[in-house]
């Protein structure tokens, strides 16, 4: 009766984690990739709207009253703040693009949906996605019946040899890899950052094999080691990258603001951003004007850059990462269970997540047992894999947990792992 593709989703992983949290409310969650609420800038919303209204009314000679009223109306499909966003992307990410190639969406989730709807044909094309990856896009692709190929992630991001093999195998089947989704900066779920050389190689591959790269930069505002790497989009000279930028982590998720840059011009002169706008007209019609006005106000007040605005938030997430790393070392070294010494983890250079690799497998039942008996919730890495994989890894999300709870959470988690390892 309903969409048969839903059967391809193994289980409702987010529903499961919510259920665990509801059943064990005292458990500290290291499962949620939410931003910390104490930084939400919600007191000044009217001021931000006024800043934008005054800016536009001066520019257009429309009265402030009339311009404010216009925010209650349906609006331009691609957005009403594209010029302001273009200056921000240039300042903070060295991305050069025309406002006409930007589409302002309802979060990056809508940008993902529009990217796939504008590119993919069900019977001809294959969508490649890092494995493990963000299920927001991989599950949308599956629900929509798009052929989706998982590509392994190694210590430096998407594995290019595996991608090459999939491209060749797809050609053999007389199909083509149309799009490749990557999160080069502090990937969700692994926390890995892709080195610059590899970014360049991926761009070369896109040009050689004629596919589009969908670059999701949800965590690029949270760089801990000072040096930001250039985004794929800033290195892209051929329009082969669709760049997705979310404001959920740097402002707040309920704003539901994400922007995409899609400056590809196809051989027949068609512009990808125009195709996307056409499809958006049949999905969300246009993005709500009021959140756009708030976002534009924040950007205008901060001189088209969020680097200073986010400094404190970034420092806070970094402190949390440091606390996770220090606590892991402290409690694993202190444990009487010597087998725990083979547990390893990466040191993320930014973002919200870190991967723990264990000498045994972790199941859904372990999540419940750990929440019940040790009062900590984590996510098995296997939840983010499309195919098999990640059975002996867990994702630690440190963004949302209170800084003063981290040491207890990690101490308890290590006790849980010690018990588990002893019994394995
Ligand atoms: C990699 C990635 N992309 C996109 C999103 C969602 O972005 P938005 O809230 O803008 O839809 C998330 C949210 O956690 C994410 O981890």
Quick take:
With 424 residues, the chain is an alpha/beta fold. The protein contains 14 helices and 14 strands.
Order of helices and strands: HEHHHEHEHEEHEHEHEEHHHEEHEEEH
Sheet with most strands: strand arrangement: 2-9-8-7-6-3-4-5
Shape: globular
Count of strand segments:
14
- What is the name of the CATH architecture of the largest domain? 3-Layer(aba) Sandwich
CATH topology annotation of the largest domain = Aspartate Aminotransferase, domain 2
Radius of gyration: 22 Å
Helicity level, as a percent range? 40-55%
InterPro entries: Aminotransferase_I/II_large, Class-I_PLP-dep_aminotransf, PyrdxlP-dep_Trfase, PyrdxlP-dep_Trfase_major, PyrdxlP-dep_Trfase_small
Organism: Kordia periserrulae
Coiled coil: 153-180
Pfam families: Aminotran_1_2
Map the helices and strands.
Elements: H1 13-23, E1 28-29, H2 45-60, H3 64-70, H4 82-93, E2 102-106, H5 107-119, E3 125-131, H6 135-143, E4 147-154, E5 157-158, H7 160-172, E6 176-182, H8 196-209, E7 212-217, H9 232-235, E8 241-246, E9 257-261, H10 272-280, H11 289-301, H12 311-334, E10 344-345, E11 353-357, H13 364-374, E12 376-377, E13 379-380, E14 393-397, H14 406-423
Parallel strand pairs: 1-12, 3-4, 3-6, 6-7, 7-8
Antiparallel strand pairs: 2-9, 4-5, 8-9, 10-11, 11-14, 13-14
The site of pyridoxal-5'-phosphate has 14 residues, from helix 5.
Verbal overview:
This protein has 424 residues and is an alpha/beta fold. It folds into two domains: 4-30 and 310-423, Aspartate Aminotransferase, domain 1 (Alpha-Beta Complex), CATH 3.90.1150.10; 45-301, Type I PLP-dependent aspartate aminotransferase-like (Major domain) (Aspartate Aminotransferase, domain 2), CATH 3.40.640. Helices cover 41% and strands 15% of the residues. It has helices at residues 13-23, 45-60, 64-70, 82-93, 107-119, 135-143, 160-172, 196-209, 232-235, 272-280, 289-301, 311-334, 364-374, 406-423; strands at 28-29, 102-106, 125-131, 147-154, 157-158, 176-182, 212-217, 241-246, 257-261, 344-345, 353-357, 376-377, 379-380, 393-397. The strands form three sheets. The protein has an eight-stranded mixed sheet, with helices on both faces. A four-stranded antiparallel sheet has the order 10-11-14-13, with no helix packed on it. Strand 3, helix 6 and strand 4 (147-154) form a beta-alpha-beta unit. The longest helix has 24 residues, at 311-334. It is globular, with a radius of gyration of 22 Å. Residues 33, 107-109, 134, 136, 183, 188, 216, 218, 246, 248, 253, 258 line the site of pyridoxal-5'-phosphate.
